[in-house]
Amino acid sequence: MPRKKKTAKTHRFVRPLMAALAMIGAVVTAYLTYNKLTGSTTACPTKGCDIVLSSPYAEVFGLPLALFGLLAYLGMAAMAIAPLLVSRPEQSDLRDKLTRWTQPLLFIGGTAMMFFSGYLMYLLTAEIKAVCLYCVGSALLSTSLFLLALLGQDWPDLSQPLFIGFITAFLVVVGTLGVYANVNAPATADSPSNQPGLEITTQSGPAEIALAQYLKDKGAIFYGAWWCPHCHEQKLLFGKEATEMLPYVECSTPDGQAQTDVCKEAGITGYPTWEINGERLSGAQPLEELAKTIGYTGPMNFQNSL
Is the dihedral of CA 53, 57, 62, 66 positive or negative? Predict the structure, then answer.
């Protein structure tokens, strides 16, 4: 009888709590995914968010890391709430089966998310050396889900979650190290600062070349990092020939793990950053916006778009 009460209490409080925490994580990661895909500015009280979210670690297989976080949180929410959606007395067997099936899956998901978040915390402190509150918050949510999956569920034998947790943690660590093994060694091509970077595959038209020359003549500065995806998008808008003419300042060291002194002194906290007539613009800018800001009045028939 005590065992049944414990199980009922777990279903009543722990699973809804897990679902609620997972949905909070899903909302946050959905917001970050949208911003990453659209190039929008992310609201953050600290300057480190832009650095972290623009780093090479913020993408996996060419997709935003936040997208994978979104899928993980949605999966956790679905598994947590699934048995509770079966409320009819005559469906008690189905509810019990869903509970048994999702119990180890919740623990596997919570363990995987916690260890992956732990590795991201290591990257923030040892590699990127910047603080992103979204990442810290996600790590706290992941740890909470892990603890609830471990302590809030009725395990007949504690050796079961310990074994599952060990195998899951091992696979996550090995997989994560494999995914990020070459993060600082992208396909190389010479950038304006002779740093490695992604290849510029678009061609420049006369309007792009004229705007690039005008920006250079007027003393504009384009601060960027060779590994920054939004900097690459900006260069694609200009095209290969015009990019070579841009007043570009490389802010990343060749290993991608530090910022150059010139950018530190300029107070650059995110990439790309344009400095035009004393005004700073953050993020990849449409060429029309750059032309308007600098006062360019030449040809405007730009041929590249994203």
Answer: negative
Question: CATH topology for 206-294?
Answer: Glutaredoxin (3.40.30)
The predicted-structure confidence for 227-248, as pLDDT tens digits, reads as follows: 787 888 899 999 999 999 999 9
Q: Is 86 left (phi over 0), alpha (psi -120 to 50) or beta?
A: beta
Domain spans, the chain: 2-179, 206-294
The CATH-assigned architecture of domain 2-179 is: Up-down Bundle (1.20)
* CB-based contact 94:86 (threshold 8 Å): yes
Coil, helix or strand for 63?
strand
Torsion-angle region of 147 (φ positive above 0: left; ψ -120 to 50: alpha; else: beta): alpha
CA proximity to 223, closest of 259, 196, 188, 181:
259
Give the least confident one: 2-11, 183-192, 200-209: 183-192
Q: What is the pLDDT of residue 154?
A: 80
How many of the other CB atoms lie within 10 Å of CB of 198?
19
**What are φ and ψ of residue 59, in 5° steps?**
-130, 145
Report the alpha-carbon distance of residue 264 to residue 275 in Å, rounded: 14
Q: What is the pTM of this model?
A: 0.62
Please give the pLDDT value at position 188: 36
Task: Compute and round to an integer the Cα radius of gyration of the chain.
Answer: 24
